[in-house]
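Sample intake sheet
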Amino acid sequence: MREMDIERNIQEVTRRIALACKRAGRSPEEVTLVAVTKTIGPAAIRAAFQAGLRHFGENRVQEAKPKLGELENIRTQCTWHMVGHLQTNKAKTAGALFDIIQSVDSVRLAEFLSRHAQKTIPILL
C-alpha cells in the first residue's frame, strides 16, 4: 500500500469517527484508533506513524517480535496492543513487547501476566 493511500485512509477513518462521535454526543478524543498491522510490513507502519497514528496492534507474538525490532526508531513513541488470543506460553514475551494486552480471556492468564510482567500492563478482559 502506498504512503499516500495510507494517509488518505487514516484521514477518512478519522473523519468517520468524528461524525459517529457527533451523532452519539461524544468527543472524538474519547476514541482510540488502533491500526492492526497483522501481515503489514514495517514500511507501511512507518507511513501510518508519519500520518499521525500512534496506536498499533498485532495478534501474533512471533510476528510482532521481529517487526518491533525493525521499528526501534518509533517503537517508544507508540502504544503497542496485543490483540487476539494470547497463549500462556507466549505471555511472558508478550508482556515485554506490548503496552496493552486486549486479549486476556482467563484468570490464569491474568495471574501469569501479573507474576511475570516487568512493568504495569493494562489488560482488557
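Comment: Strands lie at 35-36, 55-58, 79-82, 100-101. The longest helix spans residues 3-24.
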